[in-house]
Write a structure and sequence with these properties.
Layout: H1 7-10, H2 12-43
């Protein structure tokens, strides 16, 4: 009896890739927001 790969295992790589892309986009958006806030802080006059 041969073992047939279930659809879950067959579609797992795409799910992993999608999750990786989601985490990458989240990281990129966080980095962009952090860099923009950093430039805002640098461009804004210091209160102290």
């Amino acid at each position: 009896m041969r073992t047939v790969t279930p659809p879950a295992l067959r579609f797992q790589p795409t799910a992993v890739a999608e999750r990786g892309m989601a985490s990458w986009t989240i990281m990129a958006s966080q980095e962009a927001s952090r860099s923009s806030s950093l430039t805002e802080m640098q461009s804004a006059p210091y209160s102290c």
